[in-house]
Amino acid sequence: MALPDRSTTDRTDPPRRRLSRAEQRELTRERLLDAAADVFNRLGYHGASLDAVAEAAGYTKGAVYSNFATKGDLFLALLQRYAVSRARVQGEAIMALPFDKLGEYASRALADQARAQEGWDLLQIEFWLAAMRDPVLRETLAGGSAEVWDELGEQIDRKFAEAGRPIPFTGMEFAKLINALGTGLLINLYIDPDFIEPELFERATRVLLGLPAERGSAD
């Protein structure tokens, strides 16, 4: 007869640490944001509601309203979580790349976003339109990304200093220019996938960096 498996017969799971009230609140908030991402994706910004998010998350309406006063507040929190994560990934990529590869990275990122994030980008556009008609929401949206821009701008400034090149923009100015240019191109690409070749974005980025437009040209 085989001996019993001690890993199952003698194992005692360690007692779970009870979450503090602050930790429980943060866990609830993150679960609500996860549910909100699905609800907004299915129903759009205007079609979604806090009640629908509560149902999807398995919480009461009170749990939602105790964390987010309005649907706009909820979407802003979701947008902020996305922006922080994306800025971290972009900042790490920028710092790891050679200076003359930044344009290539921008072009590849544009193509990847157009291919994989259309639903999220259209949600953002829908939200922007709502915010443009709501002065309070518009002001909150404008101020909510300041910290993200500061951090990304500092990383790009370090990259510029590392390259030792005279760039006519601060890191934040460059980041905002590239973001605005990329956003405009993405909107057109969603309407017409043949609007431009993503390589054009690379050439534009290289020119802004003071590099020859064509990759492989003498810098």
Structural description of this entry:
The chain is an all-alpha fold. The protein has two domains: about 25-70, Arc Repressor Mutant, subunit A; about 75-210, Tetracycline Repressor, domain 2. Helix content is about 75%, strand content about 0%. It has eleven helices and no strands. The protein has helices at about 5-10, 20-45, 50-55, 60-65, 70-95, 100-115, 120-130, 135-145, 145-165, 170-190, 200-210. Helix 2 packs across helix 5, helix 2 (about 20-45) packs across helix 7 (about 120-130) and helix 9 (about 145-165) crosses helix 10.
List keywords for this structure.
2 domains, 11 helices, globular, single chain, 219 residues, Arc Repressor Mutant, subunit A, disordered N terminus, 74% helix, Tetracycline Repressor, domain 2, mainly alpha
Detail the topology: elements first, then pairings.
Layout: H1 6-9, H2 21-47, H3 50-57, H4 61-67, H5 71-96, H6 102-116, H7 118-132, H8 135-144, H9 146-163, H10 171-191, H11 199-208
What is the CATH-assigned architecture of the largest domain? Orthogonal Bundle
Instruction: Give the overall silhouette.
Output: globular
Distance between the termini: 76 Å
**So what's the CATH class of the largest domain?**
Mainly Alpha
Rg is 23 Å
How many individual β-strands? 0
CATH level 3 topology of the largest domain: Tetracycline Repressor, domain 2
Q: Which blocks of ≥5 consecutive residues have pLDDT under 50?
A: 1-11
**Total helical segments:** 11
Task: Write down the domain tally.
Answer: 2
Main pleated-sheet profile: none
Determine the strand fraction and express it as a percent band. under 5%
The secondary structure category is mainly alpha
Q: Averaging pLDDT over every residue, what do you get?
A: 86
Helix content: over 70%
